[in-house]
Design goal:
The protein is mainly alpha-helical. It has seven helices and no strands. It has one domain. The protein is 78% helix and 0% strand.
Length: 105
């Protein structure tokens, strides 16, 4: 039964992240999963966060800082000279990389 509970939690987390969190209500889901960028460093421990941060390119670090400060996707796209779809795509990759790092530990 414990394996089933963990598996169910993984499935819910996966679908919440992939579908709902990244496209519709990211703040709500991140808060529920305790993985928000602003409050929980994407759910990473301090050492995981440092490892994660050091692995990012300057553009990706700038993207995370802008998201953390509450800037809109449109404002970030304008600041980085990216399209909004590119910002969302990079944000998705960053979020999923953090999720993979959390899961690996």
């Amino acid at each position: 039964p414990i394996k089933q509970v963990y598996r169910l939690r993984e499935k819910i987390s996966y679908h919440a992240t992939r579908i709902f969190a990244l496209k519709h209500q990211p703040e709500l889901v991140a808060s529920w999963l305790e993985t928000s960028l602003q409050e929980h460093n994407l759910g990473l421990t301090p050492s995981q966060w440092n490892q994660y941060w050091q692995s990012l390119t300057p553009d990706r670090q700038q993207l995370l800082e802008a998201l953390r400060s509450g800037q809109s996707i449109e404002a970030i796209a304008s600041e980085l000279n990216w399209k909004t779809n590119q910002v969302m795509g990079e944000w998705s990759k960053l979020y999923l990389a953090a999720q993979a790092l959390r899961s690996a530990s």
